[in-house]
Each structure stands twice: as structure tokens, then as C-alpha cells.
Amino acid sequence: MKLANQRIEETLKIAVQYGGIDGSHHKMWVIDQMVRALCGDKKTYDELVVNACDGDDGPNTYEWDVGIAP
């Protein structure tokens, strides 16, 4: 697993490299990639997405949009 500082650096690199690209679908991709980098591994990312989608109406109350790569 990557150290926290490495994950932060990777996340900032993604933000700088892709954050200015137009289109909400591309910005959703940037957000998703940043979250993946901060989570550090697939298991943590998957758990975060499950928790983010959970709400008053059950486990699929909200959607997680992975966007489209620029």
C-alpha cells in the first residue's frame, strides 16, 4: 500500500493534469481517479463507493459516476 504522502502527491498530479478539461463527464472521471488515488487500493475504494451510495432508501439510494476519461 502506498504511503499517505505518495497518495496525496498522485492525487494532486491528477487534479493538475486533468482538472481543467471541459465537460462534466470528464470532471466526474477526474474526481473518481482522485478518490481512487486517495483510497490507495481497490478494497478501500469499493467500500467507499458502497458507503457513498447508501442512504435512506437502501444501498442504491445514490449513484457513483466514474465519468469518462478525457
Molecular structure report:
Helices cover 61% and strands 0% of the residues. The protein is flat and about 35 Å long. It has helices at residues 4-18, 24-39, 42-53. The chain has one domain (4-53). The chain has 3 helices and no strands. It has 70 residues and is mainly α.
Outline the fold blueprint.
Blueprint: H1 4-18, H2 24-39, H3 42-53
Helix pairs in contact: 1-2
Helix count equals 3
User: N-to-C SSE series?
Assistant: HHH
- Principal-axes geometry comes out as flat
Distance between the termini: 27 Å
- Tally of DSSP β-strands: 0
Q: Can you give the helix content as a percent range?
A: 55-70%
Mean pLDDT: 95
**What gyration radius follows from the Cα positions, in whole Å?**
13 Å
For the sheet with most strands, the description reads: none
Summary, kept brief:
The protein is mainly α. The protein has helices at residues 4-18, 24-39, 42-53.
List keywords for this structure.
3 helices; mainly alpha; flat; 70 residues
